[in-house]
């Protein structure tokens, strides 16, 4: 493996070269200049060729400048290589790397930081491409269904009952599209870091969410239990409300009749915990629950319920608050989701 000198070593070697070569060249140049002056005044002990001596001085000066320029370029070579790498970057070339991260010294550290940044950019770019592909897939089916329903309604002479059925189906499909688009907009907003964080009473926000979801839980035959203690976190109230809403709604929707959803808020970490009974979730599928348009078994969603972005939005909101969200699958079934959020500073 080739050992590359660090930037400090490059500068040190360049200074040493200048200190060694500079005095020698300066003494030689002074000697030549003195010889020329003595020849012109006629006081020199030996005659020298003035034109040739001037040429020697010019060549010597040029050689010295060439050495200085070479040393300067040698010192700046790693930085020029990094600049060339950055200039080659683009939407279609996010796999470019500096190949200098293994080097020592300042440039090695800088190259390593740039490579790490490029890794994050590539990961985010790949995630956006996957999300765009998934969103396109999810929107294509309901839009095709809408077109089919409209074509059926326009063909022939449908009866009032058929028109009413088509209207209800179109309304249901349109409502799902609206929910999906709204979720996509919330997800795009949640993916941005929350800049203005103010102290928020998480227990009060949780109590409001529970009050709204009581009727939904009763209709589904699910008990909604709470254990709320006063807790203040740093964040944005609307996004925190959406975070708790998604977790509670997810727990109610993917449950069983007679099941339970328990919402806990308390001091320490995690500050928020939502557990629910329900079908058994395979352990290998838990990590995929936070991916867009996925359910417990890791399958793609059908179009019968929800937009499939609840846990994805919950993760984005948590990350936007510099927090951490984690899910676990109890052996008896259901899901156990914990959220850590920073306290106000």
From TrEMBL:
The keyword Transferase applies. Residues 134-345 form the Histidine kinase domain. CDD domains: HAMP, HisKA. Keywords: Kinase, Membrane, Phosphoprotein, Signal, Transferase, Transmembrane, Transmembrane helix, Two-component regulatory system. SMART domains: HAMP, HATPase_c, HisKA. Its EC number is 2.7.13.3. PROSITE patterns: HAMP, HIS_KIN. It catalyses: ATP + protein L-histidine = ADP + protein N-phospho-L-histidine. Residues 1-26 form the signal peptide. Pfam families: HAMP, HATPase_c, HisKA. It is found in: Cell membrane. PANTHER family: SENSOR HISTIDINE KINASE TRCS (PTHR45436:SF5), SENSOR HISTIDINE KINASE YKOH (PTHR45436). This is histidine kinase. It comes from Goekera deserti.
């Amino acid at each position: 493996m080739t050992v590359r000198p660090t930037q400090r070593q490059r500068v040190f070697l360049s200074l040493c070269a200048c200190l060694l070569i500079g005095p020698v060249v300066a003494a030689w140049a002074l000697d030549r200049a003195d010889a020329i002056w003595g020849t012109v005044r006629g006081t020199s002990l030996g005659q020298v060729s003035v034109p040739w001596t001037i040429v020697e001085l010019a060549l010597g000066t040029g050689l010295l400048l060439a050495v200085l320029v070479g040393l300067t370029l040698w010192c700046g070579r790693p930085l020029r290589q990094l600049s060339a790498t950055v200039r080659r970057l683009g939407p279609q070339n996010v796999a470019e790397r500096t190949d200098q991260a293994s080097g020592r010294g300042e440039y090695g550290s800088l190259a390593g930081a740039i490579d790490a940044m490029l890794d994050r950019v590539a990961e985010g770019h790949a995630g956006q491409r996957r999300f765009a592909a998934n969103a396109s897939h999810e929107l294509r089916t309901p839009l095709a269904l809408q077109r089919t329903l409209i074509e059926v309604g326009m063909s022939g002479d449908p009866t009032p009952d058929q028109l009413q059925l088509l209207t209800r189906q179109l309304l249901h499909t349109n409502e799902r599209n609206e929910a999906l688009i709204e979720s996509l907009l919330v997800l795009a907003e949640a993916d941005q870091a929350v800049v203005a964080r103010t102290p928020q009473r998480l227990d009060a926000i949780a109590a409001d969410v529970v009050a709204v979801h009581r009727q939904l839980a009763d209709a589904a035959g699910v008990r909604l239990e709470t254990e709320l203690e006063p807790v203040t976190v740093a964040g944005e109230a609307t996004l925190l409300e959406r975070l708790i809403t998604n977790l509670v709604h997810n727990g109610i929707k993917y449950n069983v009749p007679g099941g339970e959803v328990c919402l806990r808020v308390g001091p320490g970490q995690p500050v928020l915990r939502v557990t629910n009974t329900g079908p058994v979730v395979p352990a290998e599928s838990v990590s995929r629950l936070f991916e867009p348009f996925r359910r417990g078994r890791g399958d793609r969603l059908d179009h019968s319920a929800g937009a499939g972005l609840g846990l994805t939005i919950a993760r984005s909101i948590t990350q936007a608050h510099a927090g951490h969200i984690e899910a676990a699958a109890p052996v008896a079934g259901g899901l156990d989701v914990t959220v850590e959020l920073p306290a106000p500073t």
